[in-house]
Amino acid sequence: MILRALDSTNVPPPAAIALAKQTFQGFASNQDSRIKQVYPFAGERAGVIIVEVMSGDELQDVLGNLPFSGIIKAEIHPIGSVQSSIKTMEAAERRIASMTPAGAR
Question: Which of 31, 79, 91, 102 has the fewest Cβ atoms within 10 angstroms?
Fold first, then answer.
């Protein structure tokens, strides 16, 4: 997920900083085992967190339990493995090969 601070909230800056700090302290202490990695973007109020969940409901639970959840927006991007990507490309190659006329190969 890419998490970004909202441009405008009704939360006073000191409270927003306290919520962000509390969230990052939770990341640092590995409070939620579903959160696998956290990568803040240098110079931005944003970053990437990698989570391992089995459902959208579980993902919502992870997001909802972040102290700063009310002052961020999340972009969800499911990720796969390199091996899975290779397998997908090989399947595409087989489909293309099966559509090519025998004389054109």
Answer: 102
Q: Hunting for tokens 């990052």 — which residue is that?
A: 24
**Eight-class DSSP state of 52:** -
Q: Is residue 105 in a domain? A: no
Spell out the per-residue pLDDT of the chain, length 105, in tens.
999 999 988 999 999 999 999 999 999 999 999 999 999 999 999 999 999 999 999 999 999 999 999 999 999 999 999 999 999 999 999 999 999 776 665
- The count of structural domains within the chain is 1
Q: Which string of b and e fits 53-92 if b means at least 16 CB within 10 Å?
A: eeeeeebeebbeebebbebbebeeeeeeeeeeeeeeeeee
For 87, the 3-state DSSP assignment is helix
Tell me which residue range forms the domain holding 67: 2-78
